Amino acid sequence: MQPSFVPRQMFFTKGTGKHRESLQSFEEALRDAGIAGLNLVRVSSIQPPNCKIVSRVRGLGRLTAGQIVFCVMAECRTNEPNRLAGAGIGLAVPADRSNHGYIAEYHGFGMTQRVCSDYVEDMAATMLATTQGIDLDPDKAYNERKEIYQAKGLVVRTRAVVQTIEGDKNGLWTTAVAAAVFIP
Fold this sequence. Notes:
Elements: E1 9-19, H1 22-33, E2 39-42, E3 46-47, E4 52-53, H2 56-61, E5 68-78, E6 84-94, E7 101-109, H3 113-131, H4 142-151, E8 155-166, E9 173-183
Parallel strand pairs: 1-4, 2-5
Antiparallel strand pairs: 1-9, 3-7, 5-9, 6-7, 6-8
Helix pairs in contact: 3-4
């Protein structure tokens, strides 16, 4: 029997927000992501074994307002006009789904959505691969390392959810969030 604190399902979500106050901007981003009504507890980077990924709509339908919910979250805020802010979550799922996977988060500035997506997928896949004893050359391109992972049968798939946004031209606080939300 699986312990009750080990989630059996998860979903991904993302959102943006703008407001004159930093905290309100964050709240708006959570609303856009559909998770503002939950008590979010940030956890580290492990996808539980056999944890099924469901759609955001289905996942939100299994949660109730005020519920304490665990998540891996990335957030980035700026009040600098036109500054590119990004938040991303990457997932690497092992070939043997009875083993755990890895979730990586990134929050920072200057990355496009595509670059951030590749970056968080690479981080998650690298964390998973190193648990299997694979020595990796950090100077090799992600696609080269990805071929090594696949050749060894370690990663079934990677995926990412990324939100980027340019800082408001009038200096309002601008926030991007991305999250992997666990469902009990």
